[in-house]
Fold these 2 entries.
Entry 1:
Amino acid sequence: MASIARSASQSIRAASRRAPSALAKAAVKPAQTASYSLLARAAAAKAAQRAPVQGARGVKTLDFAGTKETVYERSDWPLAKLQDYFKNDTLALIGYGSQGHGQGLNARDNGLNVIIGVRKDGESWKQAMEDGWVPGETLFPIEEAINKGTIIMNLLSDAAQSQTWPTIAPLITKGKTLYFSHGFSVVFKDDTHVIPPKDVDVILVAPKGSGRTVRTLFKEGRGINSSIAVWQDVTGKAKEKATALAVAVGSGYMYETTFEKEVYSDLYGERGVLMGGIQGMFLAQYQVLRKNGHTPSEAFNETVEEATQSLYPLIGAKGMDYMYNACSTTARRGALDWAPIFEKANLPIFEQLYESVKNGTETRKSLEFNGRSTYREDLNRELEVINNQEIWRAGKVVRSLRPDYKPESE
Ligand SMILES: NC(=O)c1ccc[n+]([C@@H]2O[C@H](COP(=O)([O-])OP(=O)(O)OC[C@H]3O[C@@H](n4cnc5c(N)ncnc54)[C@H](OP(=O)(O)O)[C@@H]3O)[C@@H](O)[C@H]2O)c1
């Protein structure tokens, strides 16, 4: 879900500025110090112990509900092997949004040689400095970072990848590797005009979560699931490199896909159930409750609070039937009856959405909107409208009553 928490990237960094963890503090030291390695190794060892591995360590072919798929795992890349593999490389992360922050700090904590390239003195430049990247040492203007890097990790916004491509392309010279976290730019090349040079490996590592989660799971010693893919394999090592880089930036398990499949599923999912769809469902349910005389707190509790605090975590833990079984027989009967009605009503919308992704409509909208010089202000204005909706204002009060509540302005 490429765009999830993009909007949250500032608050993520604000949070990490407020309460830097021991790891984050350690990360401001130069790379390769013992502290990164020890922490990361301890985390990797802990995660390896926990991994539900069938058989020997390594690549696995697993049966996903009748379809066999290959999954790669972090335990194939112990820290020493990872550091050795990239010992002659400089990872140049271009862009410091949600993903740049999470992936960059993780790779740095893993002891790799990482530099950041962003617009000088822009918002990201300041944020990178606050995270301990040092101008002239590990923080550079975009073109300078690309010149210094051997692995160019293009983590600019998708719109910016297209806008900057004419400047960036000539700098991606033979021998470098071009890395993306989304299939967007190369798959929709007719709109983005991003056509990689023929003589470089082009790979993808797309964490299935926000940059915030990429970072927090890494710090907890777990790893995020990521998709990996190869667009162009010049060296014959592209897939291996993608797998190793996925581990370097904090992935636990890597699922192989193609650039096309990744971008279609990702644009579709974030517009659907992950973000847009769920927002629409919450709001529709809330509005009907309010229209029928329910108070804001009752409508919020019955729509959002119970979902996020009680029932969705149960689905996440053990699946839909598990959640059903944890609920009353009254709830079970009603939900079983209404689920197919919602499915039928939603199916045409999802069909329409997938088509809109596949035919490039979603891409073109994103390029136009996020390519504006005022993209941050324009997005914030719309998010402020959500923030001011009664449902979310009621939610703030409900959350303030939680026993573990901490003021949200902090
Ligand atoms: N966020 C996610 O959850 C997620 C998950 C998986 C994959 N991805 C993919 O990861 C990549 C990065 O996404 P993101 O969410 O981390 O970043 P983002 O918020 O979409 O982009 C932020 C970065 O783009 C830079 N930027 C924007 N316009 C620019 C321009 N015209 N010229 C130069 N720089 C510009 C910003 O720099 P300034 O501060 O200077 O404007 C900032 O560093 C994308 O391909 C995305 O699809 C994201």
Entry 2:
Amino acid sequence: MTEPADRRLLLVHAHPDDESINNGATMAKYASEGAHVALVTCTLGEEGEVIPPELAHLAPDREGTLGAHRIGELTAAMKELGVTDHRFLGGPGRFHDSGMMGLATNDRPDAFWAADVDEAAALLVAVIRELRPQVLITYDPHGGYGHPDHIQAHRVAMRAAELAAEPAFRRDLGAPHTVAKVYWNRLPRSVVTERFAVLRSGALDTLPFDEAAEPGDVPGLVDDAVITAEIDGRTAASAKAAAMAAHATQVTVEGPWFALSNGKAQPLFDIEYYELARGNPGAPDGERETDLFAGVPGTVTKL
Ligand SMILES: [Zn+2]
């Protein structure tokens, strides 16, 4: 018998690659400190665009095997982050990538967007009651940038946190568990603006990308005052970059910059930012938390 890690972190994401882009530094940092870090990914990302020409045959309009390939990419990324517990909601392929908002793929019967929120949440309740995380990370209500699967991942994660704590709900799924803190992925406007200014004032010329994205393209962009926690993942920066690069069909990494399939350069953040959506803040009023477990009873902050 091994004791469960005293700090347990659960992340809920829509597609393989979202975890590394949004939380790669946070995940690697906590994993390296001995916390139990678990990832639940809701779809295989079957509808993604494919960057490398030599892998174009995987695309949904050709062989349609991108989902299986992305399981391998995610596995490689988790190895880079030192995360050993990664699962797909309901098992791999249970929910299909819904594609961008408004596309016909939104209406597939197996699309995650078409899933009943309570039914999908019950699958996550089983994971929450098994792992008993003190901290849950997911997207804000807009899914960061409006992708249906990101919005749905938010809804399912928030509902599951609620239902997991409800003693009368599905007792067959395990003993009730209250997640102490729920965080949403965010990025502060000042930091994003500053990094894009660097990109535009010369850095772009040194990169293999033709153009820069806009600050408004960055998911979860908010006024600085909305941010309640910042996790300094600079010691995990190379692990984050390697994890992102492992998602080679989706991401091209170049130093502290990267591009998605649109080829537009954007900053890679090794300090990651959050908004506490549920639970008690572990920092005094007006100060940002520097540890997501701050103030959680029974956990010890490792310095
Ligand atoms: Zn995504």
